[in-house]
Amino acid sequence: MKSILSLFLLFNLLTNQISTGDNIVKGKISFPEISESFIQQGANYGKNAAALSEEKIRIDQLNDPTLNVYISLHPQNFEAELTQTNDVRITQREKTFFPNMVAVTKGSTVKFVNEDEHYHNVYSLTPKARFNIGRRPTGNVYGQKINKVGVIKLGCDIHDDMGATILSLDTPYFTKIKEDGTFILTDLPDGRYMIKVYHPKLEKYSEQLLLEGGVVVEKNIKLLNKA
Predict the structure, then answer these.
(1) Residue-wise pLDDT tens digits, 160-181
(2) What residues contact residue 93 under an 8 Å CB cut-off, 6+ apart?
(3) How many domains are there within the chain?
(4) Which domain holds residue 112?
(5) What pTM did the predictor assign?
């Protein structure tokens, strides 16, 4: 009888230590005034505006610096299982990378797609993440595995003003903000986290966060210009 009771108590103890996994973090990210120079607009920008194609204008609008922004939660007292981020593509169109920023987990593959009627290249000079896929013709799709955690800057050696960013993460808990700046991360296990927001032109944001017991935490974050 005592052994059965001991097993019951041990089971309860272990059960109570297991993360509930139903915490939620949600909120809104706001931005300071951002100049148009923050937008990666490609080779045509700055010339006769009438010469810009409708597609070029559409891409520039979708590459607005308040849109392709990610928020991530990084566990501090447990190790989260990383799974590959699937179906991530960066397209080269109208001499512009689109989208100009993506986020993936470390070990994921990013596909580069040339949809222009001329050759493009993609390279990175980021330390420990250097690569060069060579010059690729129209329609070419090339997959590049991302093995480094951190910010990886991209360029095209044919069109110098093209640029994009890959944010490689060591956590599966991240999301892209919506057009209105709001975000929500669900099914978060109990634990201590570092919440981070990365924007290539603004100050990095980070803050410690404790989640436990199925809480709903609201975080409204204002990003700041770099000093």
Answers:
(1) 999 999 999 999 999 999 999 9
(2) 55, 59, 115, 116
(3) 1
(4) 25-222
(5) 0.84
